[in-house]
User: Fold this.
Amino acid sequence: MSDSAESVDKFLKAATNPSLALLLDPEATVPDLKLARGQNFWLDQSFTWLVRALALGTVSTLLWIGWVIFQQAQPAIQRFGVGFLWSQDWDVGELVFGALPYIYGTLVSSAIALLLAVPIGVAVALVTSEDFLPLWVRLPFAFILELLAAIPSVIVGLWGIFVLIPFLQPIQQWLYQLLKWLPLFSTEPFGPSLLVAGIILAIMILPTIAAISREILLALPQELRSASMALGATRWETIVGALLPTSGSGILGAATLALGRALGETMAVTMVIGNSPQISLSLLDLGYTIPAVLANEFAEALDALHVGALMYLALILFVLTLLVNVAAVLMIQVVSQSRR
Assistant:
């Protein structure tokens, strides 16, 4: 056998059965086919560069958006500086602006939505992924729930005005009469409020949390459930002790996506929150959010400082959303490492 034929034979043996190749020739090296750079791999190389270009384009677009917003916000940044973040004044006539009431309303309404939607969303995911209900009931239920995410924001806002606010008004009044000694319910409700805005947001982000959590639970191997129950665990002990901890990082990711939606939601919140730039500990009081003030005032902003203040608010929301996502990624990594 010629040298070239022997080389081809060793290569084929190493590629198909590396262990056998090493036994036949201890000095043989197992080739790493992933490192091949021959002309037959031009398609793989092209795809690699395409993916790199798309990733670079995404990051570049993100930086471009941030830079444009930063440039447009320069008049307000130079005039108010960092003090804009904790100032509570917003007077268009006097050209005095502060962001704190809007930051507060955005964070509080999103927090209420997350506290309501995460437990309900995970519960819905469990019901539609486990065999608590027949399959012919679970599948349509999950499909209808996912369709809720397709409802336009303005439609949800109109529903909130004509249905949700009248429905919640007696409940808010009851909370005020019973718990008005608590700061959270210390103001008499008028209809629109931070609580209503939080509930609207919870309804809007619920399909995201439920759908992603359901897919994560369905992806868990059936052997995990069988092993837990074989050790004597009940159904609920299996869910609490095995399924939820294993899928914790994925559910956290779903909650992060939902929080990003809640932070940036505009029309539905604008229609039910009351649009009052004030800071109140009471959830029954009126409020305002950054997206709402941008939608209400940007079209009528004529002065450069007013436009700059609105863009400054947009920059704050942009940075806040990025920080939330970075914090979520770090939390997911911590949760994943703690399970190992």
Notes: Residues 304-339 form the longest helix (36 residues). Confidence is low (pLDDT under 50) at residues 20-24. The chain has 14 helices and two strands. The first strand starts at residue 90 and ends at 91.
